[in-house]
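Batch manifest, entry 17 of 40.
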Amino acid sequence: MNGERVIEFYLDGRSGVSPYMQLVQQVRRAMRLGLLVDGDQLPTVKDVVAKVAINPNTVLKAYRELFHPAERFWLFQGIETALFVALAVLLLLAAVHWVRRRIS
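Output type: structure tokens
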């Protein structure tokens, strides 16, 4: 297996979650747990279709969701939001300080 990490997908028809979202959630869970890391290859669409008996378009939809650019940079979005909030608070504090100096 060359030290390569492999994920085995499974579907739960009773979960109430769409099949494509189940695949997405399984990959995200595996990454959170360190079972997959960025750069690991996911199984081919053909392999997933053969093992899980699912429509190839469903697998493609899941893979597109996983590799959407906004999804890959969610960490940076959080950092940008934190920076924006911090700068807004600093600006507010500077404005309050300026007003207080003008009043006194």
